[in-house]
Amino acid sequence: MIILYIVTLILFIPFFFIYKSCIKESSIELKTLLIYSLGITILPGILISPLIYDISPRFENITLETSVSVSIISLYFLSTFLIPIYIINKKNKNKNKNKNIELTYSDISLSKLLLFLSILYLFIRLILYYKNTPLYFIINNDVTGAAQSRQLVQNKKLIIDIPYIGATFKIFISLTTYLFFISYLKYNKYLFYFLISFIFSISYFILDMQKAPVFIIITNLILIYYSLKKLNIKLVFLITLSLLSLITLVISTSGNANILHIIYSIIDRVILGQIQSMYYMFQYLDPSLSGFGYDFYFSSLFNQKFNALPPNIKVIPYIPLYENNHTLVNVNTFYFGDTWSYLGWLGIFIIPLIVSIIFYFTLVFFNAMKKNAIYLCLSITFFSFYPITRSLTEILSFKYFLHYIIFGYIPIFILQYLHKHLKKRYEYRKN
Hints:
This protein is mainly α. The chain folds into 2 domains: 2-96 and 274-397, no CATH class; 99-268, no CATH class. The mean pLDDT is 85. It contains 18 helices and no strands. The chain crosses the membrane at residues 6-22, 34-53, 68-89, 110-130, 162-183, 190-206, 212-228, 235-255, 342-366, 373-389, 401-419.
């Protein structure tokens, strides 16, 4: 197995050049997916796991055979996933110029409207649900209560947001943050609007005590800055401020004030936390389609086996690290874990190809749509949260794609049309 692992490291060399090309030539909206989701939360972990499987608490009970096999197969999954990005980049070689982003008065005007509506909705949400939110318990120094609140929310036994409507405004507030930031970087305008949208976008997710969305929003801002301004002292300051914010957030949610321990836990969580469960799935779960339809639209219409617990819940008892964690609802994993758990070796051969085809057409769709700055920012939001490290079923069933079409694209399109129509009527009456 060690020899096989060494061969894998050698094969990693051509993969690295393709990966580097994808990062260099991709447009703004794919940067976080490539650099953070693939390059930080997946790639380092699968490369080092065969070396630390017997010393890391995250891989307790995992064998050398499992660690090497999963790492090799995951590298194949990653390579296949990069193919559509590579093809699109070559096809649009002279079109993915981030500095060519143009913002119109209509973009800014509509963004102001989206920001106003998002702020208004947040206040409504605070009035209705604040005392049920994890943030309420954290402010009252009740870390256990916050964890239990999060568990109840994830299990849909506690409501802290208006169903469906809340999803739309989370998209609105995120994309306005990116648009006003781009406007500030390109034209040195609308800094105030950016700061307001940034504060409220963080507030949306802090209310749920969700660390990952906050970190991804900040990562997007850093990569947008780098794409438009390149490396300078302001970017270093932004990165430092982001790290301090993340450490503060971890302290508030964990109750642990040991800075060194927190830094270690962040690195451990980011590099190994997103991939560990797929090793346990491969070693302990027998492939079965049971649970494939869990939590999907109209899932109650299907049989009980179809709605059984999915792999990211079934695997929890096999992970020693979570033995005493009674508030954990599910675990994240690179989509290899779900692939193995549902279809075994058959899935390993065919699913990466299917996912690549789906992702290719997704890229084509958003590539055509992003000519408008508003939709470019929607694309940034969409790809930065792409469920490659969360759920295979959300990709295959188009649940994630439909989520952004229904709660993002359609509402924005309607508001854009109304905004344009009302503006014309106003100008007509004025004349």
